[in-house]
Amino acid sequence: MSKAIPSLKVLFxxxxxxxxxxxxxxxxxxxxxxxxxxxxxxxxxxxxISGTKCALAVNSGTTALEIIFRILDVDRRDVLxxxxxxxxxxxxxxxxxxxxxxxxxxxxxxxxxxxxKITPKTKVIVVVHIGGYICENIFEIKKLCIKRGIFLVxxxxxxxxxxxxxxxxxxxxxxxxxxxxxxKVITTCxxxxxxxxxxxxxxxxxxxxxxxxxxxGIRNILPGNSWRMSxxxxxxxxxxxxxFHKDTKHRREIIDLYYKExxxxxxxxxxxxxxxxxxxxxxxxKNEKEATGLKTFLKEQAISTGKGVYDIPLHLQPVFxxxxxxxxxxxxxxxxxxICLPIWRFMKKQEVKRVCDVIKLFxxx
Length: 365
Ligand SMILES: Cc1ncc(COP(=O)(O)O)c(C=O)c1O
Hints:
By secondary structure, this protein is an alpha/beta fold. The chain folds into 2 domains: 14-241, 3-Layer(aba) Sandwich (Aspartate Aminotransferase, domain 2), CATH 3.40.640; 244-364, Aspartate Aminotransferase, domain 1 (Alpha-Beta Complex). The chain is 41% helix and 13% strand. The protein has helices spanning 14-30, 37-50, 61-71, 87-95, 111-117, 138-148, 199-209, 231-241, 244-262, 288-300, 329-337, 349-364, and strands at residues 54-58, 78-82, 99-103, 122-128, 151-155, 163-164, 167-168, 175-179, 192-196, 281-284, 338-341. The chain has a 7-stranded mixed sheet, sandwiched between helices. Strands 6-7 form a two-stranded antiparallel ribbon. The chain has a two-stranded antiparallel ribbon with strand order 10-11. Helix 2 packs across helix 8 and helix 9 packs parallel to helix 12 (349-364). Pyridoxal-5'-phosphate binds next to helix 3 and helix 4.
């Protein structure tokens, strides 16, 4: 049997490992283990990727979202959230006191569903760039938000370096949140980033990040938390930034190759003109039976497809049951018929070809 192909690999180059080892040594020798020069350098470099004036590193993507929601004062207000997203998007809003209102969609938001769910209580609409793909109608959603006086928050946890019409993920809405969880295209082991072009907002976020303390360092003026990123995590993130553009180009070539090899089959890729981050390669098939059959067939050939984005829509998750007011048929269908194909940083083109050959074999039987 051919070598197994996992759904993803978390990899570092030799140079990156050397940079990490050397600089963790420097961090330990300096005695500054948190909120030091590496975190600042990571933030300064990351804002070039998000295309925003400011960036603030925190301890997770979930925290990045929660701080944004707290600053926007969503308490007892509604936050519109796609049902097809990670638990984090909704729990961050709930923890900030909001009621999550789930809207429908597949890989992309359904605009009609969003419009139907807006009420005078709506404070924020969240768009999640699922798998690193930005939806074609993001600027229409932005216009709608401006017209209705609603904030647009981008959950860009998957979308480091994604862009549409030359605009980077994170700089389209009012505020953006990124994750550096190990599976993401840049990782700090655990970590997140808040991005915005509003400096006052970021200064407030910095207060939330460090136990709500003002510049005196002794007065707690906001209900913050210990939400800091450590210097060691910032070093791990910085190490990958040097190769980021090369990596993104490679990931996009992988996606293009999948598309070229598979576009004659009865499957579909997300339809968008965006340049994705390459976090995920998402395909949709005819129905659940076909999706299960294809995943099993791939597994028999030692090819793993891992988890979907996402297998259970949030409005059906037990923890959010009390907020579930309606059926969301597009999300429910999408959760059953999509598959994420293998992709990682240094995936070889022969590995993509092998995955594609197995998929072609599945459809030729
Ligand atoms: C869409 C989305 N938002 C937010 C998060 C939360 O990020 P973290 O795990 O860094 O808290 C994730 C995590 O994978 C995610 O997929």
